[in-house]
Amino acid sequence: MDALAGLLDGPRARGAFLLRMVMEPPWSVRIEDRAPLCLMSVTAGEAWIVPAGAGAGAGAGAGAGAGATGPVLLRPGDLAVARGPEPYTVADLPDTDPQARIGPGGVCTTLRGEPLSQSMNLGVRTWGNAPDGSTAVLVGTYLMDGEISGRLLDALPPLIVLPSGGRARPLPALLDDEIARDEPGQSVVLDRLLDLLLIDALRTWFSRPGAEAPAWYRAMGDPVVGQALRLLQNEPAHPWTVAALAGRTGVSRAGLARRFTELVGEPPMAYLTGWRLAVAADLLRETDATVEAVARQVGYSQAFAFSTAFKRVRGVSPQEYRKGGGPA
């Protein structure tokens, strides 16, 4: 498995929150749903995304594929990926005062808490303030932490913007066609489309110069450290030592340890522990394997040692994590 494939192997939408937002200016919606990840694609008109703490004068956008820190303008074909749980605003202009709030679970209210879901319902998965509004935005939100692996979220900035550059993207067009349909199994179709759209967006972002990829991902290009990383990622259950890893990569133990730490930012065995526990977290949420079986799959001979390491890093036991406790 290559580095990118391993990183993108996590998206698993399950009953994701998807809708087409249709609006006529002036409009502004405050997003406070604390969802781990949200994708937005403008199909008509324009929309601004204002991250938390960014004022109207904080900047007019971000470079292609960059992590944005100020208000960003989205035009038709542009795609944005917002990482939670920090709030942000989507509006016709950066300084338009919010008129609605989206809370946890996609519940929409006024800023005073009055329900808006019914009054702004425009049909199947369509919501807004005007049926023929000049702005349309596709919104797809992962609602649960377990749907996105923690190691993927840790690799992303709060906001990624991918300008279309005049190039039509087939997946948003397909999602736009499917989102308002009400057919058997439609939610499953939409979940898979959202997963594909996210993977395509992140693959594009990681491949661009200046993308803020994690150190270990950049280190994959090093002939020695890259090989060591692939060995650790592909065989987490192997009883690795620095000496064994150095032997497989053809360098000295000291040379590997120094080079690995310089490029990745932590020693080989520390990275291996983090990788094992990240893989274990995904297995706990996505499979019915026992804690003992998960422990063996990631290189722990004893469930007790695994549980101790897991709780030290995650703050909860494997059993509590499986039930939804702790971060993803």
How would you sum up this structure in a few lines?
This protein has a 7-stranded mixed beta sheet, with helices on one face. By secondary structure, the chain is of the alpha+beta class.
Features:
328 residues; alpha+beta; 7-stranded mixed beta sheet; 6-stranded mixed beta sheet; 12 helices
Give a written overview of the molecule.
The strands form two sheets. The chain has a seven-stranded mixed sheet, with helices on one face. The protein has helices spanning 3-7, 150-154, 170-178, 186-206, 215-219, 225-234, 242-249, 253-264, 268-286, 291-297, 303-314, 318-322; strands at 17-23, 28-31, 37-44, 47-51, 72-74, 79-83, 88-91, 100-102, 108-109, 121-123, 126-128, 135-142, 159-162. A hairpin with a 2-residue loop joins strand 10 and strand 11. It has 328 residues and is α+β, with helices and mostly antiparallel strands.
